[in-house]
Amino acid sequence: MKMMNCPLNGLRNISEFVHGGEVKEMPDPNSCSDKEWADYVFFSDNAISVVTEWWLHAPSGYWFIAERHTGSDEILKTYDPSVLFSERVEFSAPATEVKA
Amino acid sequence: MPFSLLKYGLNKDYPFEQHADLPKPTELKPHYDVVIIGGGGHGVATAYYLAKYHGITNVAILEKSYLGGGNTARNTAVIRSNYLTSEGVKFYSESVKLFKELSNEFDFNIMYSQRGQLTLAHTDAAVRGFRQRAEVNKHFGGKTELIDPQQIRELVPTLNMNPADMPVLAGLWHMDGATARHDAVAWGYAKGATQRGVELHQLTEVTDVIVQQGKVTGVKTNRGNVSCGCVVQAVAGHSSLLAAKAGFKMPITTFPLQAMVTQPVKPFLDPLVSSPSLHCYVQQTGRGELVFGGGSDPYPLYSTRSTMDLKESLLANAVELFPFMANMRLMRQWAGLTDMTSDYSPIMGLSPVDNYYLDAGWGTWGFKSTPICGKSMAELVASGGKVPELIKPFSMDRFNAFRQVNEMGATAASH
Ligand SMILES: Cc1cc2nc3c(=O)[nH]c(=O)nc-3n(C[C@H](O)[C@H](O)[C@H](O)COP(=O)(O)OP(=O)(O)OC[C@H]3O[C@@H](n4cnc5c(N)ncnc54)[C@H](O)[C@@H]3O)c2cc1C
Fold this sequence. Notes:
Structural class of chain A: mainly beta
CATH architecture of the largest domain in chain B: 3-Layer(bba) Sandwich
Largest sheet of chain A: 4 strands, antiparallel
Number of helices of chain A: 1
CATH class of chain A: Alpha Beta
Structural class of chain B: alpha+beta
CATH topology of the largest domain in chain B: FAD/NAD(P)-binding domain
Distance between the termini of chain B: 41 Å
CATH superfamily of the largest domain in chain B: FAD/NAD(P)-binding domain
Oligomer: heterodimer
Distance between the termini of chain A: 53 Å
Shape of chain B: globular
Largest interface: A-B, 22 and 23 residues
Strand content of chain A: 35-45%
Bound molecules: flavin-adenine dinucleotide
Number of helices of chain B: 10
CATH class of the largest domain in chain B: Alpha Beta
CATH topology of chain A: Folate-binding fold
Shape of chain A: globular
Number of strands of chain A: 6
Strand content of chain B: 15-25%
Radius of gyration of chain B: 21 Å
Radius of gyration of chain A: 17 Å
Order of helices and strands of chain B: HEHEEHEEHEHEEHEEEEHEEEEHEEEHH
CATH architecture of chain A: 2-Layer Sandwich
Number of strands of chain B: 19
């Protein structure tokens, strides 16, 4: 079976991993237009090239980043998301009181 | 014979043979009214209907490889209309109607074989979903009903009613379900189109799209440039790559889809049998081979390689459905590149570039739509961009309006 190097758990069978899509810059959901949000959520380059993508190691629930060639399926690098993301993104929905 | 085989083997060029029913290749003309990129079933069907119903024959189909060599030659040929949404059912029902008449229309046998499709429910949620699908189908004139385990046993006596410890609770019995010879569909359309004056150029790859002031004016190919009035893009798994050349992105991700077939055995299985929970469907061809298919590969890739992982997971479930198949031998396996959308519905209609029309997002389910998609795309082109009612819900813009047409549950492993 094809193997992938998980930055947390080392070399594992590819069947333990879940693909999470291209790493894209997220527009600010509070200020962006619907078109910009749709672009972020649905549209992608889907190119034949080295692509930076999100992957999940399912058994340990660990998300990381991989650089993979979408033509040859060669996995060039895997690393912890902290390499690209230094800040937490807060999705704080204002709390509303539920009336019984 | 051995000598010609040797010559064939030593040929430096791609072993490309002249099809008896198609005209000899010609030079590309400098201008066409319509350029169709992709000589799969969809491209040739569009050309056929343009010529037949709209008298538009200054048309070139540009195919980088050979006629119908893409997903058209790789699919498992399931034809059905038992989808979930009214938009979907209406659209696919029209296709089933056209398919039934194609052999007569072409005067060429596409081996249309209506044997019904049986989808199995192993959970209460699936039974509820099937009930809804049966009603939507009947509403649009389809023959679909919910049947119980006893009726399933009678239809398919060889089926294990408790596969993988997931008892079969009910079935969605779609009497319109059918198969056809996929290559013959492409050949029939190509023959009909070229007889009416359309040019089919194989081994002709579109390498770039020429856009001026937001409007397409021509394409570049490995055999030179051609100018054109409009373009229809029908390249399945390569949709995003072509769109990038025209300057826009699509809501599509390309995944390999694998299928396989066994040695032939005595006929025992009439209907097409599919289990969404087991991600698996099985059918027996007219020659007696068993065809297996399942879902797309788990992650995106532009490669038509086959994997051991998929064989293991798919066949384990197929053997659960029909345990006696465990000793059969596989004869062939293959893969195609499927252009998946997130709502499992296609993309037909306008693009951000004027006069550049889209026929894409057919993923794992587009063979069955070949006739009606071709007919609708021809209408769109002939009217100069007026989108026919039937395909309006499938515009690419639906994603910008968050108005998806969700067919995921009705597609899954059933294609
Ligand atoms: C294994 C498998 C099983 C399937 N099973 C089913 C099924 O049971 N039922 C069903 O309804 N559907 C099924 N499908 C889906 C179906 O096959 C496709 O949706 C359908 O064939 C798409 O037809 P098309 O003409 O759009 O694409 P294709 O037949 O793929 O044609 C596109 C053509 O475009 C050409 N092309 C690409 N780039 C260029 C370029 N730059 N220049 C020129 N030409 C180019 C390609 O060479 C190709 O021939 C299956 C698919 C696969 C892979």
